[in-house]
Amino acid sequence: MALSPDDVLLVIAPTMASVAGYDTYVELAQQQTSPGYFGSHWAMAVALRAAHMWTLNTLRGGQSGVITYLMEGRLSKSFGGVGVIREELQLTNYGMQLLGLMDSMPGSVGTVASEQIINTYLGGGL
């Protein structure tokens, strides 16, 4: 039985299911996630992307970047040793899991495109 993004989200981010706009997060994640690239892992990729977007927009209040300093009134707290964030998916645990899933996918878009060009224009080989 194939899982849907909703099935996966109920496990990895159960509190998200009751959030206003839940369906919109899932729809936006579907639009940004290629079924051709992820194949049978597409539902997991969509769920991770939706949870990542929800975490950034809801729990972090839309903030981007790494939180290194918090202040409320006269009380403040600094955080250090967080490393360098090079892309937006590295800002949440869900995004990091999606990056790991992407790294585990065989081949790449560039490889597929190159093979198609060779087959189409050069008759299948060099």
Structure characterization notes:
The chain has one domain. It is built from 6 helices and 2 strands, in the order H-H-H-H-E-E-H-H. Helix 2 (22-31) packs across helix 4 and helix 4 (42-59) packs antiparallel against helix 5 (93-104). The chain has 126 residues and is mostly helical. It has helices at residues 5-12, 22-31, 35-38, 42-59, 93-104, 109-121; strands at 69-72, 75-78. Helix content is 52%, strand content 6%. A two-stranded antiparallel sheet has the order 1-2. The mean pLDDT is 77.
The percent of residues in helical segments reads: 40-55%
Structural class: mainly alpha
In whole angstroms, the N-to-C terminal distance is 42 Å
- Portion in strands: 5-15%
Anisotropy-based shape:
globular
Secondary structure topology:
Elements: H1 5-12, H2 22-31, H3 35-38, H4 42-59, E1 69-72, E2 75-78, H5 93-104, H6 109-121
Antiparallel strand pairs: 1-2
Helix pairs in contact: 1-4, 2-4, 4-5
What characteristics describe this protein?
126 residues, mainly alpha, 6 helices, globular
In short:
This protein is mainly alpha-helical. The protein has one domain (5-121).
